[in-house]
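Example record

The entry below shows one chain as it appears in the dataset: sequence first, then structure tokens.
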Amino acid sequence: MLTKKILFGNFKGGVGKTTNSVMTAYELAKKGYKTLVCDLDPQSNSTQLLRRTYGLQHNSELKIDKTMMVAIQEEKLPDAIVEIMNNLYLLPSYKDFVSYPDFLEMKFMPNVPNYKEKRMSYFGTLLSEVDNKFDYIIFDVPPTLSIFTDTALYDTDYVIIVLQTQQRSLDGAEAFWEYLQEFYNNHTAIDFDIAGILPVLLKNNSGIDNQIIKDARETFGKDMIFENIMHHMERLKRYDRKGISEKGLTSVNDFHDIRLHALYGKLTEEIIARTGGK
């Protein structure tokens, strides 16, 4: 199986992008797929969630000897990868990653031929050392137009647009969709597909939520909308604070965990199907 790279994105923040990317990576790992989460957001939300998950499962603090930014500067990106649990790995972000754009500007000055392309492709070049070691690589990026997002887009195979059922999120999804088309048309070296639009409900059985999904189907096409719609669940807030828990792995679990993992298990199966897996 060739490595598949997936980016979760939207130009609106706070839509569940990080939560869904990490939960998908977690479920992929549970299904036996060796999975790497690349946290390309200087805010480090994916890193914090997975560090808490490691602490919850191992009752100890995750040791990070080298930040991703240092590994990039040393051109030894694999050195920064840490294991969270069986089949689940992390390239952790840290506050020093905010200097990545400046690093690229210094390394590829405007007098360097194709310097813009080289800036965007540099991370993927370093990451290629571990491509054949993982079944899936998940990119988490900031909700902004930035070199962080472009870096992931340049290297990814599939994009999933996360759509929280509110108007601003729909506007952000539409803007992101348009940017993806423009980015694809302007760079001949890339080749990614949009795997679909993933709706995340703000409230269950809400009229406005249903209307936003209806509008999304009309805007993007019915086939582009995921069949598995993620409902608002309070347990996810607990995961953000305490780490991901699950029956059999920690002593902190109940029917809420069981139900939540069952839902994300189904979503992950659909993601596998939409990205050409079995």
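Notes for this example: The mean pLDDT is 90. Residues 157 and 192 are 4 Å apart (CA to CA).
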